Amino acid sequence: MAHTFLLEIGLEEMPAHVVTPAIKQLVKRTVDYLKEQRVDYAEIKPFSTPRRLAILISGLADKQEDISETVKGPAKKIAQDTDGNWTKAAIGFTRGQGLTPDDITFKEIKGTEYVFVDKFIAGEPVATVLAGLRDIIMAMTFPTMMKWSTHHFQYIRPIRWMVALLDDQVIPFTILDVTTGRSTRGHRFLGKEIDLATAADYEESLTSQFVIADADKRKALIKKQINKLAADNDWTVDIDAGLLEEVNNLVEWPTAFAGSFDDKYLTIPDEVLITSMRDHQRFFYARDASGKLLPVFISVRNGTDHDLQNVVAGNEKVLTARLEDAMFFYTEDQKKTITDYVERLKTVSFHDKISTMAEKMDRVKAIVTVLAKHLNLNDAQTKAALRASEIYKFDLVTGMVGEFAELQGVMGEKYALLGGEDPAVAQAIREHYEPISADGALPESVPGAVLALADKFDSILTFFAAGMIPSGSNDPYALRRQATGIVRIAKDQNWALPVAELASDFIAAESTANVAPDLDQNSQIQAVVDFVKDRIRKILRSAKQRHDIIDAVTNGSSSDVLRIFTAADILASHADDANFKAVIESLTRVIRLAQKAPAELADATVDPKLFENDSEGALDQGVAEVATAADKGLNDLYAALADIQPTIAAYFEATMVMDKNDAVRNNRLTELSKLANLALGLGDLDQLIVK
C-alpha cells in the first residue's frame, strides 16, 4: 500500500532570500535520507512561505527494502587456529554483521578458502524510518543562525510548530520543546490554527486559512495580478524575476495593488527612482508605451483587498519620503563641481593599510597608461580612459551615493554628463564597476573595459601586497570577483593579457609617476598570476572543459589570459585526432628530457658541428619551423608541433640524448629545451591524459 506523508516546519517569519534555498535544501536532504534508508516513493512536492517549510511525499512504501546478501570475510586460515577454533578475527567479523560464528560457511576462491555469511536484514516500517527526519531538520544550515529562549540550538528562526503525518497517523518526535502533531497554522492575521485529518488535506486546508502554500502557484498569482493592473491602465511592467522571487517569499496570501507619486520626481534620473522603488521598497515600476517611466508603482500586500486604500496610502507616503530625500541630494550634489569632489577624495580611505581613494586613482591612471599602449588604443580611446581614471571615483563623496550606495558609478555617469564631460568618459565611469557579479554584464566600451581592468588590477595587487589575500571562503574585499572580471573582460574584448609581464609594467609605471604605494607589490606578482589562473580554471570547469586540458593550460608557462583560453580550445579541438596521442607523447618525452638540462644551458645555442646523425639535423630544422609557426599564433604552433612528431620519433630512435660526451649531451639537451619551451607555450602537456 502506498502512503502519503506530510512534514511541515512552522517558523517565525524567515528573511525572503532564505526561503527558496531552504526548501530546496530540505528536499535534497530528504531525498538523500530516503535513498540511504532504502525507502521508495513516487514524488516529493515542496511547499514554502515565510512561515513554513513543508514537503508532501506521495507513493511512499510500507517499509524499507529487505537486505539479503552474502558477505565475504577473512581467509579460513585466519578465521580458525590449528585446532579448528574460531579466532578473534572470525568472531569480530560475524559480530560486525550481527551474526555468530555458527553462521559461517566456507567458499574457495582461486585456491584459497574464505569465510562467508548469508546476511538478511528485514526492512523497518516506514513510520519508524520517518521519525529519523528529526535529524534532517536539525542538520539544516542557513546563512545566518539564531538562538532563542534558553536553548543552545541554532536555526534560521525559532521553530513554533511541526506537523508529521503519515496518512492520518502522527509520527512523533520532538525538537527542543516542540513536538510533532497534526495542527498547522493559517495566515498570521486572517487565518487560525487547524487540525489536519490526513496529510493529503494539507494544501486545501491551508487555502481555507488564507495561505497559498505552493510557492509556484503563489508566484503565478502575483504575476497574473500585476499583469492585470498593467493591462487595465495601459502600463508596461517588466516583472523582474529576482524581485518577484523576493516578494513571493514575503507573502502567504498575495494581493497586488497600484499606487502613485508626484510627477515632479520624474526629474530625478530613472535609475534613482527605480532603485527607490525596486530595491528599497520592493515595488514594481511601470512605463508608458514609449518607454517613459510613469509616476506609479505596483506592490503586493500579504492579505486580502480589505481596506486596501489605507495600504496604498501608507506605501505612497513611505515612497514619497524616500523620493524627497533623493530630490534633495540630487539638487545639492549639482552645486559642487567634479573637481570639488575629487579634492575630497584625498581624505577618503581606500584602505587604511594601503592608501586614500585619491592615491588609488593616481595608481590606476598609471596602469591605464600601460594598458593603453599594450592594447594599441587609438587617441580618442586613450584620452577618454585617462580622463576617466582621473575622476572615476568622485561620486563616492556625493550625497546621492551616500544615501543610495548601489548607485555608485551610475551617478558618476549622470553627474559627469551634467558636468560637461565627454560621454565616453561618463560611460567608462559607470562601466568600471562591471561585472558586479560573477556572471554580470561586462563593459561595452573600450575605455570602460580598460578602466575596469586597471581598477581591478590595482585592488588585487595592493591587497595582496598588504597581506590581505583571500583564503577559504573568506574574501571580504571581493578580490575573487574582481579577478573573474579581469578574465571575462580580456576574453570578451579578445585582448592578450599577460598578467605577469603587465603587473611588472604597472608597478614600474607607478614608480616612474611617483604614485607607488609603500608596499612590496613585486613580491606578489606570481601569487596574483596564480590567483587569476584559479579564476580561469573555474570558468573553464563551468564550460565543461576536460579537467586534464584545464590542468595543462593553466599549469603552462604562459600567464596570458586569452592565450590560456585559446590553448584550451585548440587542445580540445584536436583531442580526437588520430595522431593526438602520438603527438602529445612525443612532446612530453621532449619536455621531461629537457628538464635534465643544466641551468647554464638556458641561453646556449645549438652547434650543428656536434650532430652525429641525420636525425639531429632534421630535428634542428623542424624546431626552427616550429619557432616560425609560434610567431603566427597557437593554431599554427600546434599544427607545426603535430607535423614534427615523426621527426621527433625518428630522432629518439637514432639518438641517445644522454651521451657520455658532455659537449654532445649538452648540445642535444639544448635542442630539446628549445622545442620543449615552444611546446610549453600551449601548456604543461604532461598533464594531458591520452589513450
UniProtKB/TrEMBL annotation:
Catalytic activity of the protein: tRNA(Gly) + glycine + ATP = glycyl-tRNA(Gly) + AMP + diphosphate
GO MF assignments: ATP binding; glycine-tRNA ligase activity
Chief localization: cytoplasm
EC number of this enzyme: 6.1.1.14
Compartments, record wording: Cytoplasm
UniProt-listed Pfam families: tRNA_synt_2f (PF02092)
Annotated Gene Ontology cellular component terms: cytosol
Subunit structure: Tetramer of two alpha and two beta subunits.
Protein name: Glycine--tRNA ligase beta subunit
Organism of derivation: Levilactobacillus hammesii DSM 16381
